Amino acid sequence: MTRFPRDPGGKRAGGWAESRHDRHRWPPAAGDAVSEQPEAALSVAAVARRLGIAPATLRTWDRRYGLGPSEHSAGAHRRYSPDDLARLLTMRRLTLEGVAPGEAARTALSTPRQEAAPSELDVLDAYADAEMPPDPDALVAAARHGDNAAVRWMLARVHPRDPLEWYATLVRPAMSTLAAEPVLERAGESSCHRLEASCYAELRSRSVALATRTAEDVPAAPVALVAPTGAATDLEAHVLAGALSGRGVPASVLVGGTPETAAEAVARARAQVLVVHAGHRGTPDAVDLVRRLDGADDLMVFWHEEGRGPVPDGLRVHRVRSLAGACYEVAAVLS
C-alpha cells in the first residue's frame, strides 16, 4: 500500500490542501477540540469522518472482522464506544502502513485500549494531508445512504489539485454506477442529484482556493469560455473550466440562452477561446452557435465531442475528444 510522504514542515506542498485542512481538520489532530472529548459514544458517520473513511468501510470491518459498535442509544441505534474507536484507530493505522486487513483486525482486537489510544490520533494526523485513492464504490454507497459528510470528505481528498483526474477516476465512475443501477427512492430524494450537488460544491471550494492564491494574476475577463450544449449535465463543462483555471487559463462556463443570445454573450466576453462541449453528439443548437461565431478572427473554437464521429459539415473548429485533450490543447494554444 502506498505510504504518503510529508515534507519536513509537516505539510504537503501546495496551498489548496493546506488551506482546506486548516479549516476542516479530518481526522482531527490530538489538540483539536473534538479529540478532547473522547468519551462520547459516536455514530457511524462521526467515526467515518474522524477516521477519514467511508461508512461503507466501517460496515465491512464490522461484518468481516467484528470491529463494530458495541453501545446502543435510544431507538436501538448502535454507537461506537471509546474502546471501539481505539480499536478502529489501530485498524486504520495498520492498514495505512500496508498491513493486510485481516491481520490488522486481529491486532486491533487484541490490543488493550490504553496501549492503542494515546498516540493513534497523532499517527492519523500524520496522514491528514495525504490524498485518498479514488474509491467510486465507496462514494456510491455514501451517496445512497445520504451521508453527505462522507461524500464531501472523499470528494475533497481525491486528486485535490487535478480536477480532470478527480472527475475521471472518482466522480464519473460513481455517477455512471448510480445511473445504471435501478433503485427505489422516495419523492424528492435522488442519489445522482445529491452527488452532483456535492461535486459542484467541491468545485466551488477549489475555485475559491485557487482564486485566493492567484488573485493578483487573474484577469478581470475570462480567457476561455466553455459552452455545454447537448450534454446530459453541465458538470463536465464546470470540471473543464476548473482544470483550465488551474493551469493558468481563467475560464468560465456559458449556460442558458439561445444560439443567438449565446453568440452575443461570447462576443461581449471577448474571450480568446470557446470550447463547445457537445456531449456525445452535436446538437443543432451547438452547430448554430458555432456558425454564428464563424468569421470572428480573434476567437478560436474547439469542438469537444466524445467518440470518433466527424465534426458537422461546414464548421471551422478544432476537434478534441476528451476533457483532458481539450484542457491541454487550449492551454497549449494560449501559452
TrEMBL record:
Protease found in the keyword field: no
Keywords: DNA-binding
Gene3D superfamilies noted in UniProt: 1.10.1660.10
Full protein name: MerR family transcriptional regulator
Region (Disordered): 1-37
Composition-biased stretches (Basic and acidic residues): 1-10
This protein's record includes keyword Glycoprotein: no
Start and end residues of each HTH merR-type domain: 41-110
Top-level lineage group: Bacteria
Lineage of the organism: Bacteria, Bacillati, Actinomycetota, Actinomycetes, Micrococcales
